[in-house]
Amino acid sequence: MSRSRRKKLPVEPVAATIESLGHDGRGVAHIDGKAVFIHGGLPGEEVLFTYSKQRRKYDEGQVVEVIKPSPERVEPACPHFCVCGGCSLQHLAPAAQLRHKQQTLLDALKHIGQVRPGEILPPLELDDHWGYRRKARLGAKYVTKKGKVLVGFRERGSSFITDLTCCKVLHPKVGELIGPLAGLIEGLSIRDKVPQIEMAMGDEVCVLIFRVLEGLTGDDCTRLEAFGDTHDISIYVQEGGLDTVRPLSGEAADLTYALPDFDLEFHFLPTDFTQVNSGINRLMVRRAVDMLDPAPQDRVLELFCGLGNFTLPLARRAAEVVAVEGDAGLVARARENARANGIGNTVFYTANLYEPLVQEPWLGLSFDKALLDPPRTGAVEVLEHLPRLGIKRILYISCYPGTLARDAGELVNKHGYELRAAGVMDMFPHTAHVESVALFEKS
Fold first, then answer.
1. Fold equal for 1-73 and 135-201+206-253
2. 8 Å CB contact between 59 and 34
3. Which residues contact 286 (CB under 8 A, 6 or more apart)?
4. Does domain 99-127+277-441 match CATH 3.20.20.150?
5. Which one, of 441, 279, 306, 316, lies nearest residue 373 by Cα?
6. pLDDT reported for residue 133
7. Closest Cα to residue 154, out of 63, 80, 65, 49?
8. CA distance 299 to 277
9. What is the pTM of this model?
């Protein structure tokens, strides 16, 4: 039996009016009653677009001409914006980006969690929206037909690497070196065996980790080391899993970042999780401590503590902070950071917070307040323990509105907390990523 051929996409541009902005930054329109998600369209605009995909329930497209622009449309700063998948909102003014993210959060809380915050917090943002990214994973590929190496993020809606010359959202230390990085890999004997470069940057030191699928020659090592010396970058290589990441020179880089408001300095490894935007992180930590407001007699529970980004600032004001994290390596770094900063009122535990918790020693304690900073999957598995531990105030840091909304619904509708306040933080300008904070209290 012959298989039916796929229906060909319309070639001619189609007119549409953009009705709203989707959570992923695409404009939403309807053609003959069917939703179309259109890259490059903004609410209120009249555009011409071409179809990129047609599905049973919705279609996708790309703007080819803006007939009537939105007053909030701006010229993208990056010449690669229309192709690169790293950013989705460069064509929207920064203030409007934040309004969109705030609305995304409020819509999720309303429709997923069936809750509303008592107060909408003013967004946390910086004056400069460029060159903020200090953590990133870039793809690399030698393309035979082009006769060169490409380094960058994936193309929008594709597995291909974008042919970048620069990146405006990466810290300039790396963002302005995209071309030289591609040239560096082209000169290696294994130019077609370097699929990835990972960037990790502290306040001063920058590390680049080159994933290599074959062994480096002596000349390869010399080239990499010379590049690092020229650009003041520490070169690492990764030949297998994360346990194979090592400095090429044999001397580990001293990666650090500071939280001056709390007189703290953190040491971390290139593979450790840290916030990508150091300026917003400082504002976020200050807001978190102020909102949780630990008193000198309070015992605070922190779940998903990482390397102590919130733990140590909280410990400056609380009687004790008990912090729990599933990654033993991060717990070790958190303990060392506490010791190095002269903080003695913290206790750290390693526990998988997504598995049933029964024998954990900290479950036998009582707490006044709690801070949760879970990954994208949220924290629903641990919520039932919070009221049992006597916790009256919870601050929840979220990197995904959907799971925050789900968990907010659990805390409010099942466990008796009130959602006092919520708001967004501009951790990832020019992208649709929404970082947010929510405060819950029991009366």
1. yes
2. yes
3. 261, 313
4. no
5. 306
6. 97
7. 80
8. 29
9. 0.94
Burial (Cβ within 10 Å: 0-12, 13-18, ≥19) of residue 211: buried
Q: Which of 173, 134, 133 is nearest to 268 (CA)?
A: 134
Class of domain 1-73: mainly beta
Q: What is the mean pLDDT of each run of 10 residues along the chain (443 residues)?
A: 60 94 94 95 96 93 96 95 92 96 97 98 96 97 95 92 96 97 98 98 98 97 98 98 96 98 98 97 98 98 98 98 98 98 98 94 97 97 97 98 98 98 98 97 90
Q: Which two tokens stand for residue 198?
A: 């990972």
Which residue among the candidates 84, 87, 167, 399 is catalytic per the annotation? 399
| CATH no. of 135-201+206-253 | 2.40.50.1070
Which amino acid belongs to residue 262?
Answer: F
- Would you state the pLDDT for residue 11? 83
Q: Which residues of 141-152 are buried (b: 16+ CB within 10 A; e: fewer)?
A: bbeeeeebbbbb
Locate 268 and state its tokens: 């971390």
Q: Quick one: tokens of 249?
A: 């020179």
SS (H, E, C) 134-173: CEEEEEEEEECCCCEEEEECEECCCCCECCCCCCCCECHH
Task: Look up 399 and say whether it is catalytic.
Answer: yes
Q: Where are the domains of the chain?
A: 1-73, 99-127+277-441, 135-201+206-253
